[in-house]
Amino acid sequence: MKTYHPLSRAALALAAATALGATLSACAPLVIGGAAVGAMMAFDRRTSGAQIEDESIQLRAASRLRDAFGDRGHVNVTSYNRQVLLTGEVPSEQAKQQAEQIAAQVENVKGTVNELAVMPPTSLTQRSSDALITGQIKASLVDDGSLSVSAFKVVTERGTVYLMGRVTQREADRATQIARHINGVQRVVRIFEIISEEELRRLAPSMGRSAPASARPASAAR
């Protein structure tokens, strides 16, 4: 039985188009990634407090990085459950370390993953390709049927895909396999918070939906 998800392909296409527009904007060298909005909050495995804090972390970190670097760097800030991922390009190793220090000092940040590259900013063509890869991965997660796309945050930079989320080992492995088979993906980096299948079943009622069939007890699966 196919599990239906709260996000349709049409919604994902719209989200991908919006993300692409933001990515290609020449006026936005610092990009805030992966905002959870509206009804999606009800299906997120983070607490509502953590979701709000992640939004605040992204806004504050992006603002401080913009003040520090201006248009000298292309830095993406993504926060999931207070873990901050930095991706993009900066002009020097010193700038890379400075960016991490700035992000780490933002209120409520519990850890940082610094994936910034020391190199010139990527081209609009590359950023367009990255945005399309992200959209294709999200659509493939929906199509898979055994995964909840709202449990994942997907970031793509220069063909490298970063996967974040509170997921089981089964979900992490399946999502990684899906991402690796998308055209244009060079590498997949997993930044997951692994939970047990039992914890996933406990989370399902609070998210207002049933767990995927593969995550239910044998007696509940049909």
Describe the structure.
- The protein has about 220 residues and is an alpha/beta fold.
- Helix content is about 40%, strand content about 20%.
- The strands form two sheets. The protein has a four-stranded mixed β-sheet. It has a three-stranded mixed β-sheet with strand order 5-6-7.
- Strand 1, helix 2 and strand 2 form a beta-alpha-beta unit.
- Helix 1 (about 10-25) runs antiparallel to helix 4 (about 125-145) and helix 2 runs antiparallel to helix 3 (about 95-105).
- The protein is globular, with a radius of gyration of 17 Å.
Would you spell out the secondary-structure blueprint of this structure?
Blueprint (H helix, E strand, L loop, with lengths): L8 H15 L6 E3 L15 H22 L4 E7 L2 E8 L2 H12 L6 E8 L5 H21 L7 E6 L2 E8 L1 H12 L6 E8 L2 H10 L16
Parallel strand pairs: 1-2, 3-4, 6-7
Antiparallel strand pairs: 2-3, 5-6
Number of helices: 6
What's the total count of β strands? 7
Question: How would you classify the quaternary structure?
Answer: single chain
Mean pLDDT: 83
The assigned structural class equals: alpha/beta
Which CATH class of the largest domain is shown?
Alpha Beta
Fraction of residues in helix? 40-55%
Strand content: 15-25%
> Biggest sheet, strands in spatial order?
1-2-3-4
Radius of gyration: 17 Å
Characterize the main sheet: 4 strands, mixed
Enter the CATH topology name of the largest domain. Histidine-containing Protein, Chain: A
Give the termini distance in whole angstroms.
Answer: 8 Å
Which runs of at least 5 residues are low in confidence (pLDDT < 50)? 1-7, 17-29, 34-40, 213-222
Gross morphology: globular
Tally the structural domains: 2
Element order: H for helix, E for strand: HEHEEHEHEEHEH
CATH architecture annotation of the largest domain: 2-Layer Sandwich
